[in-house]
Design brief:
The chain is α/β, with parallel strands linked by helices. It has helices spanning 96-104, 139-151, 159-168, 186-200, 232-240, 264-283, 313-322, 372-395, 397-406; strands spanning 58-60, 67-69, 87-90, 114-120, 122-124, 136-138, 155-156, 175-182, 204-208, 245-249, 303-305, 326-328, 341-344, 370-371. The strands form five sheets. Strands 4, 7, 8, 9, 10 and 14 form a six-stranded parallel beta sheet that branches. Strands 1-2 form a two-stranded antiparallel sheet.
């Protein structure tokens, strides 16, 4: 099965060879009317602590006619200079009061909580040459990444945890990662990652291709010679039962990327049929008995990992209709936070293979991902962005709480410190 690619051409007769590599990807529209985080006129952010202007105007409440002070002007949304200039963080919650309630609920994640999505493909021995497409890293590089992530206090989360965080700001570790292994790689999952997952109580998300899985035998792993699985589905169902792997959709044919010319039939096959197959083998099957769960009701899989990083407006619409809550690109725009997704409106000449996401008009279905080869040095950048967001939230905390308690009804007095 072909690995994920950045700008793969349409292939009429796709190959399903497991060991094939990605073509080389550059490693590094119009703007829709997305609702901003705030509906008020923003206060420009400056390098000095300029006090907020006082307000003397009043407005009338229609129900009583009682003069009330004009609500405080909310600050402009947080932006980090560590992002590329063409990247604009996008909000996806339209109601300002709902956003502020979820942001400052003491039971939720505190402001500045950050998630770093990372895309992995192949992990190879330190003595081997790396593939030219940037999809591989050495074992020593994986060790270094995990060591540094631990030093900085990062923990992994599942797709379900990510969805609950992004949609409702539910509590997750302040510095979180979602590690995604693309394509059908049982050995990388079970042999390379599994010891780390057990040692640190982590999880790994598997972006699983359907393809010809029904016809494939189990993958023989010399490190686990006593395994007796016959089919690839049987092998992966057993691995899923270990409780550390999170299976999400990565297409049916997979190596034909979605684009504006994709037919409705093709898009539905890739997005809907692949989801149904994963439900049948993982989420609607009793893993202890192997029996089908009758009248199964599940939201899983929750994520669609766009094959080759290719997406289009109609593809995103079908993904939303099919029941996916989030989608992942191959564009390393930055980390994600609650109601804050760094995306671009137009192509960047320095990275022409990165498709612009803002025209899709659905930020949660075009989330960014860092490449594994860059993940180590990006950890400190993600940490710095989180620290900036925490400081920004602290600076404007009283303004936001004043708006929340004086404008939003009912009043929401319980607060938390960022």
């Amino acid at each position: 099965m072909a690995a994920c690619t950045g700008a793969a051409p349409l292939i009429q007769t796709p190959s399903h060879t497991e060991s094939s590599q990605n073509p080389v990807i550059d490693q590094q529209t119009s703007t829709p009317s997305l609702s901003p985080i705030y509906t008020q006129t923003p206060v420009p952010e400056t390098s000095t602590n300029t006090p907020l202007p006082s307000h003397t105007n009043t407005f009338q409440l229609p129900s009583t006619g009682t003069p009330t002070p004009v609500p405080p002007i909310l600050p402009s949304p947080f932006r980090s200079n560590l992002l590329r200039p063409n990247i604009t963080p996008q909000a996806y919650i339209e109601d300002t009061c709902e956003y502020l309630k979820l942001r400052w609920d003491p039971n939720n994640s505190s402001p500045g909580t950050v998630v770093m999505p990372v895309m992995f493909h192949s992990i190879t021995g330190d003595q081997n040459d790396l593939a030219a497409d940037g999809s591989q890293i050495h074992e020593k590089d994986l060790d270094a990444f995990i060591l540094r992530a631990r030093e900085l206090g990062f923990e992994t989360i599942t797709t379900e945890q990510l969805v609950h965080f992004l949609e409702r700001n539910e509590k997750i570790p302040p510095r979180s990662m979602i590690l995604i292994l693309d394509d059908r790689r049982p050995g990388v999952a079970r042999v390379t990652f599994y010891p780390y997952l057990i040692k640190y109580n982590w999880t790994l998300t598997l972006a699983w291709i359907i393809g010809d899985t029904d016809q494939k035998p189990a993958t023989y792993l010399k490190e686990l010679p006593n395994e007796t699985y016959m089919t690839l589905w049987q092998q992966m169902e057993a691995y899923y039962a270990l409780g550390v792997f999170d299976i999400q959709a990565h297409g049916y044919i997979h190596n034909i990327v979605a684009n504006e010319e994709s037919t409705e039939e093709f898009l539905r096959h890739e997005l809907i049929d692949s989801r149904l197959e994963l439900q049948k083998h993982f989420y609607c099957k009793d893993q202890s008995t192997g029996e089908e769960i009758i009248n199964c009701q599940t939201d899983q899989p929750l994520a669609y990992i766009w094959p080759g990083g290719g997406f289009a407006k109609r593809a995103v619409e079908i993904a939303r209709q099919a029941g996916y809550h989030v989608g992942f690109t191959i564009n390393p725009r930055g980390p994600v936070m609650f109601n804050w997704i760094p995306l671009a409106a137009e192509k960047d000449a320095s990275s022409p293979s990165w498709l612009p996401e803002i025209p899709m008009d659905d930020p949660l279905l075009v989330l960014p991902r860092y490449w594994s080869k860059d993940a180590l040095y990006r950890l400190d950048e993600v940490t710095a962005i989180s620290d900036e967001a925490i400081a920004y939230a602290q600076k404007y905390r009283e303004v936001e709480l004043s708006y929340l308690n004086n404008v939003c009804q009912p009043s929401y007095p319980e607060t938390q410190s960022p």
